[in-house]
Amino acid sequence: MNSSRISSQGMLLALLSVIVPLVLTFAGGWLLTTYVANERLHTLAQIASQRASATFEQASQTLKNVALTDLQPCTPESIEQMRMIAMNTFSVESVGYEEDVFACTSWGATSPRATKWPEDFVTEDGVKVSIEAYDDNPLIKPMLALQFAAFNVLVDPEQFREVDLDEGIKLAVGTRQGRLLGPARPNMASFLALVHQGPTHGLKDGFLYTSAAQGNFTVIAAIPRQELLRSLWKHVLYLLPVGLIVSAALLLANLRWWRRKLSPLNALEQAVRRNEFLVHYQPIIEIETHRCIGAEALVRWQKTDGTIVYPDHFIPLAESSGLIEGITNQVIQTVLNDLGTILASDRSMHVALNLAAADVCTGHFLPKLLEEVQRLDVLPGQIWLEVTERSLLDPAPAKITIERARNAGFIIALDDFGTGYSSLQYLQQLPLDALKIDRSFVEQVGAATEKTLLVTHVIQMGRALELTLIAEGVETTGQLDYLRANQVRYAQGWLFAKAMDCAQFKKLYWASRPLALRHSDDVNVSS
Ligand code: C2E
Ligand code: MG
Ligand code: MG
User: Fold this and answer.
1) How many domains does the chain have?
2) Which of 60, 85, 363, 491 has the greatest number of C-beta atoms within 10 Å?
3) Torsions phi, psi for 282 (to 5 deg)
4) Which residues does 419 contact at the CB level (< 8 Å), separation at least 6?
5) What EC number(s) does its UniProt record assign (predicted)?
6) Smallest CA separation from ligand 1 atom 20, residue
7) How far apart are CA 117 and CA 338, in angstroms?
8) What pLDDT digit, counting tens, does each position of 288-328 carry?
9) Whose CA is nearest to atom 33 of ligand 1?
10) Is the whole-model pTM more than 0.70?
């Protein structure tokens, strides 16, 4: 994943880290608000329905008691008694008696009403109920009338709703059949109809409502949206600190993820996983014949955006992070895929592989290398393994690996010779085959006499140890002449060629071969 993609992903995650907790805070606030409101509405509806049921029961009982007494209808004494009953019964406004011929109420004698009260329902014990009983006097508001035999009692519908209401909550009482008691209130009649048909609670027309039924009545308690929003803000403010803490924690985690993703180590891990390494080859020249006799394989990391990273910039990190083994294996695979056929067809050619300290220490690369040379019919002697003095710091395991590799037939070369601290005595004990004279020494050739002497000493030392000598970093003909005069066998450097890709190297290699050999191997090269 390239860095701009990681950045845009990080930005998206950062945005989500802020938005998601905030949305959840609001969602949580809304759930809390509706939960609290529902609980309040439910309690109120319960209390109001119990109240309505109790009021009705009291009025109904009073009516039946009056009807069962042997009261002489509409005498001054019975009217007085009816008045006393009305005054002493909380729920009852008036007691009445009505027959075809005469009628009276607890307020005095009247005449029978011209129109009968419409009957809404009859209770199980035979009480007829009219929810909008109009007296003939238009100034008196509609009452709830209960009739039993010739007696009736009137109840003010407001009595059914006498519950202390919290601010903003609306209450409506209706019959089980869905008719509203008392004056119509906005929305409440439609809620009553809704409840009568099905859901006992919910959100509708900007109200949260709930209902409770008891006896002959249903009570609806509802709270408008504005009230809900007011308490939503209150609950959101409660929850906001939690939301902000979660958001900050997510942002922090996101930041750490982002930094990790953009870290060089992560990029290198990805590169190893995706095999983003390629190998360039720097020709090695036999000084005497001027022929190319092989190459040093130098790894490059080609990033997804095409940029090339040189080994000095990632090998140290790969070594310290343990990723180097994966890289070494990929280099082995690539080199043998690239040059396996030529190596198998020209036994005089060799290729040099660089090993890291960890490779030399563990020797884990060896089975893979052996498998590859066998598969491609390459002789182990055609593979040179370059170890640096740094990789010999842990001498015991290094010696084991070098001996194993050498026993398998591989050639061991000491790279960058002279830049480390290995004692001569120690070098003498190691089973080495070749010595690569470091560029820093070759650079001295042609400089002040004492410095040139140093190069001469290094060359003499290599010879004394009976090692094949290869000079690195040869850039001038003067250096080449000097090396030739001092019998250094091989040279490598920009004087001949820089490191190049496989196709270019093959071209250069075949160009320096004798004609007969070139011809016979052309088939192999193109394969
Ligand atoms: P090295 O093994 O000493 O490789 C020689 C380095 O010197 C190469 O640099 C090469 O391009 C450069 N060089 C060659 N001729 C000249 C010259 O005439 N003048 C100058 N100025 N430079 C020259 P490169 O490719 O950047 O590699 C640097 C180092 O990275 C190598 O030094 C080697 O230690 C390490 N390396 C390269 N490939 C691998 C690999 O596959 N595995 C491991 N573990 N290390 C590698
Ligand atoms: Mg090398
Ligand atoms: Mg070197």
Assistant:
1) 1
2) 491
3) -105, 120
4) 388, 389, 438, 440
5) 3.1.4.52
6) 473
7) 108
8) 999 999 999 999 999 988 999 999 999 999 999 999 999 99
9) 354
10) no
